[in-house]
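Possible regression after last week's pipeline update?

I re-ran a chain I had predicted before the update to compare outputs. Posting the input and the new output here so someone can diff against the archived version. Not blocking, just want to make sure nothing changed silently.
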Amino acid sequence: MRLSQACRTLTQTMPKNLVIVESPAKAKTIQNYLGKDFEVMSSLGHVRDLPAKRMAVDIKHDFKPEYEISNEKKKVVAALKQAVKGNKTVWLASDEDREGEAIAWHLSEVLKLKADNTRRIVFHEITKPAILAALETPRRIDKNLVDAQQARRVLDRLVGYELSPLLWRKVRPGLSAGRVQSVAVRLIVEREREIAGHEATTTFKISAVLKREPDELAAVYAQQPADKAKAKAVLEQLKTGPFDVLAVDQTEGTRNPAPPFTTSSLQQEASRKLGYSVKRTMNLAQRLYEAGHITYMRTDSVSLSGQSTAMAKDYIGAEFGQNYHQFRRYTTKTRGAQEAHEAIRPTRVERAEAGEDPAQAKLYKLIRGRFLASQMATAKLLKTKIILSNGKAELTAEGEVITFDGWLKAYPQSALKDEVLPKLAVGDKLTLIAAKAEETPGRVPPRYTEANLVRTLEEMGIGRPSTYAPTISTIQDRGYVSREPAPTKEVELTILRLKAGKISQQTEVKTLGGDSKKLLPTDTATVVTDFLLKHFKDVVDYDFTAEVEDEFDAIEVGQRAWNAMIKDFYTDFHKTVMAAAKVTRKEATQARKIGVDPQTKRPILARFGRYGPMLQRGEAEDETKPDFAPLPPGATLENVTLELALKMFELPRDLGEQDGQPIKANIGRYGPYVQLGSTFASIPKDEDVFTIGLSRAQKLIAERQSATKKSLIKDFGDGLIVKSGRFGPYVTNGKTNAKIPKDIDPKKLTLDQVQSLLKKRA
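New output (post-update):
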């Protein structure tokens, strides 16, 4: 009797509702808003997915996906199954996009939830009013949204699992291909070729400094002469003075605020203003969202709810004054955007600061400022243009002053600044102090940054907010893109100066390129892009890829059956895969003949080998086997010259001997080096592998041996040693490195302990 009564008491005190969200952080925030009748648990994202090591799509039976619960999620699923027992109402509260809807559906399938006690709820923000409102307006799982996500997942699996192995065989092991990632790589490759094919031009920018006590005025000559002779002729015209003010024109101007952030515009602005990568921006935004500080951060809509605009109006009026408020309604123009979503904004605009660390705080400040600015009055400017002439040439000075800051009050991150000109009137006379004509290189097409690539993909309708960050991570992880500084080029530019009636000339060496944080295509990207363009044009076709996104949108609204859409794509795609399988590896990698070795009379080829780009002397069909050499540092398969290639076949260089062993200079995987036996020492960047001498090589080797000796903690023989490294002490056998736990003294390690650490690491 007592036992049954205890069971009834326990049942009565247990929560009657289970809310399942995606992340523990979100679960913790929401639990604080709900009473004892609710238990909030996390699914840690997807609880099941297509297995990683096989296709898992039944092509013969309408492309049915074969989902499975991964090993790391089995404990999560077991805990959720235990939690849903009884007559509880289960609230599936995953994110409101397709991915979130798919997570809710997978949960309902795996947990075998019944329709009568299962509710699907969505919310744009994690605040108590939003959560309670969501509980009052539940709905069923939207199968169309699920199917749209399922179509994307299956299509990407088909492309990846049929195309990637083909790239492994024809180009290089470990490569991958995909609809959005391959198009992104193509954009980067084509931009680099556009830069390489750009015809270098220069013009002369002419500027001057004039004076009327006590003020100075900076002015420019409107035209930019194309050559030095014409630029010098203009400076000759500027010699005579004085300069009369011909006109002072003042006009009123305005500057409107930008819309509130979408996912892509946030990524772009955070890159420009804060220097954040796309991946970092999304991680920080995710944490701000889960803590309840901002609305959902994956959106392509600039719309704002009536509640949020009313909140902004009240705050702006109280903080800045009613004249600073201006209601604005924004319409999303992005292809396929979902107007049911809302832009990214703060959940409580009165919260001036938020975030667990400085990085989050900076991003929050950016989001809040942009939102406030979007509902504020237009900034007003007074623009001034002064035209001056000495009778032979005209100069122009322009400035602008902010007369009403409007939205700039809330968004000081804007680059708009006052440019004040001295007060001048028509007829005033000024004296020329100095002038110069500076030769300036023509504008070269800019390389993509992460933010610019996102903007381009969005404008083309390729991908969706949730795909940009993982796409950019993938193309870097797979070796298609390098974040190394861009190649540099030194150019000699002329500067003509006019001072005290005399013209002087000087030259200045300027380094062009070297861009940091730009996306540079590797040789792998070039070869793979050319292969796909030749044999799989649809996969990397810009319009086709955007049309596939439109197909997903049609599935989402119930206008298209997902497996019918997949069938239409796969039928032709699979035929193309079968045809491309017959292409030889030589044809796929498109070896380029760059000339003939004048000594051996054998052809020199730049080609892509199994492990990357390389040079080849001779053909595989020749009686004598071909010789191979690495590409020169900084060169690519497309721009390497015969002269550079021939030098590479001179390596390794024999510099002399030491203790009966040869010293050699060579270029390896990690750059140029010198070698003595088993000692390798890197050659500094400002030194040349082709000119380094014996004495310098011996010094580098001695420094390396000394550093190695200092780092050696213990030597067990046969290459088994304990060393001090950059990240702490470790053991190595020359092939495998294993970190030593902090609670173990590396000096006291035994042979058995070392072998055990290496075995575990292997």
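Follow-up from reviewer: compared with the archived run. The chain is about 35% helix and 25% strand. Marking as no regression found.
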